[in-house]
Write a structure and sequence with these properties.
With 448 residues, the chain is an alpha/beta fold. It folds into two domains: 164 residues, Aspartate Aminotransferase, domain 1; 264 residues, Type I PLP-dependent aspartate aminotransferase-like (Major domain) (Aspartate Aminotransferase, domain 2, 3-Layer(aba) Sandwich). Helix content is 40%, strand content 14%. It is built from 14 helices and 14 strands. The protein has an eight-stranded mixed beta sheet with strand order 2-9-8-7-6-3-4-5, with helices on both faces. A four-stranded antiparallel beta sheet has the order 10-11-14-13, covered by helices on one side. Helix 6 links the parallel strand 3 and strand 4. The longest helix is centred in the last third of the chain and has 22 residues. The two termini are 37 Å apart. GO terms for molecular function: pyridoxal phosphate binding; transaminase activity. Keywords: Aminotransferase, Pyridoxal phosphate, Transferase. This is GntR family transcriptional regulator. Pfam families: Aminotran_1_2 (PF00155).
């Protein structure tokens, strides 16, 4: 699924209002425009823009080394052939597919269904797939549909993806945190938080989870706990919002089944994205919402009504490129990302080796109070520092030591993670990783 911290564009330069012009007061705008969850990335963008030579562990961008501009044309050609040879469209219909407004639910839904069957052993009705403008739109649509008023709440394992927190702010949805441990979401605490919400007169509607190599914590849920999570959702009558951007990037031992592939009661709404597996610039995501409605429609149809008033349809050209990407790989994303997965494995080993080299028992700073987790895949490692890891320290780290990272407290909505940082290693090389961790060690030594 697409991280808010991926795009390190330079922050806009404030401009003085024209003489006699309107001056708006942020206090009179929606609270989300000044919410820390939505403004945190502005600071990161600004710092990165001012220090372009710093080693950046901040952005969760995919690896760029295999991108080829020429491949875009090949993808488009493959999709055009599919329209003609497989779907039997004539020249006018082909042109209309590429250039006109498209179907609100998208037109590569059948290819996404084939991908899910191939890679995830998941059988879904293509009509339950809504293609969205990035996975972020899918989150906003689902939250908007589920949360009718202030009594409706969602739950999420903390720390959690800041983009999900931001989506909740945009639709004024309450979020109740659930504890997360080394094995993912704490099921006992989830049950307790649901009980407390109901005792407070609230309606728990859904719980957001990233079962594989979660952003930011890097943790994964064991298969047995996945089954217990589904049983809990059935027992407590809540939905599970499963986000799955990273499962292809495992350590080489294979992948666990998704919650959705084990879902026999339509309890799981499944978020997917091609940002990490194809390329982020396409801005193509999707949601599988196969929950039946009372009138015989699907939840995806209700979400499409909201999308029609938000983005109308997902870019037809972007869908065509992603459709061609799928077709050229026999609709197997795992097959398409073999090289990238190996890069991430090598980079994860480089990060762990660098941390051991500089902070381990025989490292440069043994006994420094620095510790870290050891994910089995994904793109992120969490490091605990002996000092407060806030935006002030991040600024110092960039200016004096040339290394960027993400303060973890952003992923707790400011209520935790005060001494932790997230290292994202996906867009770096092992050599740059080693340089960056050496700089991080100098920062820790300086503060100590």
């Amino acid at each position: 699924m697409t991280s808010v911290s991926e795009h390190l564009d330079t922050a806009p330069v404030p401009r003085a209002p024209a003489p006699g012009g309107v001056r708006l007061d942020a206090a009179e705008l929606h609270a989300s425009v000044s919410d820390p969850c939505l403004t945190a990335m502005t600071l990161l963008n600004d710092i990165a823009g001012r220090h372009p030579d710093a080693v950046s562990f901040a952005a969760g961008r995919p690896y760029e080394g295999f991108y080829e501009v020429a491949a875009l044309g090949d993808h488009l050609t493959a999709f055009e052939r599919h329209l003609v040879d497989d779907l039997g469209l004539g020249p006018e219909d082909v042109r209309r597919t590429f250039f006109q407004y498209g179907r609100t639910k998208g037109f590569i839904h059948h290819l996404i269904a084939r991908h899910l069957a191939s890679d995830e052993r998941m059988t879904v009705d293509p009509e339950s797939v809504l293609v969205t403008t990035g996975c972020q739109e899918a989150m906003v649509l689902v939250l908007r549909a589920l949360c009718r008023d202030e009594r409706d709440v969602v739950l999420a394992a903390y720390p959690t993806y800041v983009g999900f927190l931001g989506a909740t702010r945009l639709v004024d949805a309450q979020v109740r945190p659930v504890a997360e441990g080394p094995g993912g979401i704490d099921l006992a605490d989830l049950a307790e938080q649901i009980r407390r919400a109901r005792a407070d007169g609230l309606r728990p509607r859904a719980c957001y989870v990233v079962p594989d190599f979660a952003n930011p914590g890097g943790v994964s849920i064991p298969e047995a706990d996945r089954r217990r999570l589904l049983e809990l959702a059935e027992r407590e009558d809540v939905l599970l919002l499963e986000d799955n951007p990273y499962s292809m990037f495992h350590g080489g031992e294979g992948r666990l089944p998704t919650l959705k592939s084990m879902d026999v009661g339509h309890r799981v709404v499944y978020f997917g994205s091609f940002a990490k597996t194809a390329f982020a610039g396409a801005r193509v995501g999707y949601v599988v919402a196969d929950q039946p409605m009372a009138d015989g429609a699907l939840f995806a149809d209700e979400l499409a009504k909201l999308k029609s008033m938000l983005t109308l349809n997902t870019s037809t050209v972007a869908q065509a490129v992603v459709g061609g990407f799928l077709l050229r790989n026999d609709c197997s994303v795992e097959r398409a990302t073999v090289r990238e997965a190996q890069v991430y494995r090598d980079n994860l080993r480089a990060v762990l080796a660098g941390l051991e080299k500089h902070f381990g028992e025989d490292g440069a700073l043994p006994g420094s109070g620095v510790s870290w987790n050891v994910p089995e895949g994904g793109m992120f490692v969490v490091v605990t520092l002996p000092m407060r890891a806030d935006d002030v320290l991040l600024t110092r780290s960039a200016e004096r030591f040339g290394v960027l990272w993400t303060p973890m407290y952003h992923f707790y909505a400011g209520e935790g993670g005060s001494h932790q940082i997230r290292l994202s290693f996906s867009a770096l090389t092992p050599e740059r990783i080693d340089v960056g961790i050496a700089r991080l060690a100098r920062l820790v030594a300086d503060r100590a």
